[in-house]
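Internal tracking record. Fields below are filled automatically when a chain is submitted to the structure queue. Please do not edit lines marked as system-generated. If the sequence contains nonstandard residues, flag them in the REMARKS field before resubmitting.
Queue: standard
Priority: normal
Entity type: single polypeptide chain
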Amino acid sequence: MAAYDYEDAPGTYDETSATQRQASSGAPPSQDLGYDPNFVPDSVKSFVVHLYRHIREKNVYEIHQMYETSFQTLSDRLFKDTPWPSVDAVAHYVDNDHVFCLLYREMWFRHLYARLSPTLKQRIDSWDNYCSLFQVVLHGVVNMQLPNQWLWDMVDEFVYQFQSFCQYRAKMKNKTEQEIALLRQFDQAWNVYGVLNFLQALVEKSMIIQILEHEKEGLEQFTATDGYDYNGGSNVLKVLGYFSMVGLLRVHCLLGDYHTGLKCLQPIDITQQGVYTTVIGSHISTIYHYGFANLMLRRYVEAIREFNKILLYIYKTKQYHQKSPQYEQILKKNEQMYALLAISLSLCPQVKLVEETVNSQLREKYGEKMIRMQRYDDEAFAIYDELFSYACPKFITPSPPSFEEPLVNYNQDAYRLQLKLFLYEVKQQQLLSGIRTFLKVYSSISLAKLASYMEVDESKLRTILLTYKHKTHAVDTDGKIISNADVDFYIDDDLIYVVESKPAKRYGDYFLRQIVKLEGVINDMDRVKLD
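SYSTEM-GENERATED OUTPUT FOLLOWS
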């Protein structure tokens, strides 16, 4: 992957908004009058002492249990609507260990964003903490093993907080003079070049691209060990570098640069199981942004194929994540990806690529809307608008605001631009549904005959056919032209010859569904006998 030079940031170094997160918890702002940042309950003291010890001993299993379970339990019990104790209050319990304190603050800020509404100063402090933490990882000697879940959450939260800051900063209308002064003073906080540089630096310093190449040649192990180092080394830099490729894809999607985003992800073979599939949040985020980027680049077949796979996976495994803190996010992304699949199939009707289970869920959720979307009238465009607005990422404008009066909100500008471009593409597809209908009926037809059916002259028909060819083909990441067409054609003299791809019949799905139904009937009969 090319080393993108994003300009050096001065100084160091869906997708839910913070407000929505706060609303879901019903929490007040963090300046709670009863909150004492220096008070450390015994259970918190025990937590940090044990977590510190396990990190020093590289006990990944225990770290994972404490991070995933104990931290959430304590947060629910003691800090439902207040922050955790300050890092200064717990530092002396962990020998004032600099790296542990940075990790503790990273968790502290993540909890604050999840449960409360951070102030501008807290947003800036969180940026500084990420700068310090990543500087240690990039330039220090980090001899730790941390769970993949935690390392993914670091990258995921880093990009989320950047997105949240850009949205917050873009709402200038109701900013106080103090907030404007702080924004002027700390104008490099959450700077887009700084964010991109950190993620790129983690990719390059970790040498993860070379590691993945060596693994293909059998010279190194990374995926086979889930990224962990069983020879006494550290997994932190390598795995952070790996997840940073997903982070870069997400940032570029937020910026509307889909081509660059997909290029950043290229070293990861998403057709195979990998480290990104070991963490459910990483797996879903990767495919969601990968699929969305392909959708926006008109690579509909690729988007449909990957959405189908991940939706089938979620359908089969979501019951195992019901107690996970990420469960609500999993369900939300699941619904968003069904909406994106509905859009993709409406623009490129390749239903044969979709498994029966996913297809039946899709028809249940969007069957009626998908029929209406085929009409390409005002109602259809309204549905495209609705589904896109629901399922798209929260686009950002990364540039700093103008501080001149009158102050205006511009947080919706990037979204409106992407929606406009998307609906323009949908509008261009309007004629294609008509041509596709005729091509499906004939194996060959003369230009004159088709022109009379479509009530256009021959020169206009040739233009429409060229448009169809253009819109059903796209350029992939390697620069090759790929086809999205379910019905293709070629013209010889004045005769159109139709080539229709034949779907492979699937019998396995049918038998599996019948077996499940039969097992259900047998179980019901057994219960009746017992009664």
